[in-house]
Design brief:
This protein is mainly α. It contains 4 helices and no strands. It has a single domain, classed as Orthogonal Bundle (Arc Repressor Mutant, subunit A). Helix 2 packs antiparallel against helix 3 and helix 3 packs across helix 4. The relative contact order is 0.15. The model has no long low-confidence stretch (mean pLDDT about 90).
């Protein structure tokens, strides 16, 4: 634990928790669907609509999957291959 992390345990000022209104929990079947749609070049907006999730939640999942190397970069990024 770094000194910066220790400061968060007993902060001297108020900490702001960001994105607390989003749901970052995913079932494996949902993640597989997103990975598949990503592979087929779908736009993030259409992926979100298909899996019935907030577009920001899908964006965070895409970031998670990319960091774990479960999806690869693609032409067009989150906007798809269109």
């Amino acid at each position: 634990m770094t000194n910066h992390d220790i400061m968060k345990l007993r902060p001297k000022s108020e900490l702001v928790i960001i994105l607390e209104d989003l749901d970052f929990s995913w079932y494996a079947v949902e993640m597989d669907k997103v990975k598949s749609l990503w592979k087929y070049g779908w736009h993030i907006k259409d992926i979100a609509k298909t899996v019935k999730r907030d577009q920001d939640e899908v964006a965070m999942l895409i970031m998670h999957l990319a960091r774990r190397e479960e999806i690869s970069r693609r032409r067009g990024g989150v906007f798809g291959d269109a």
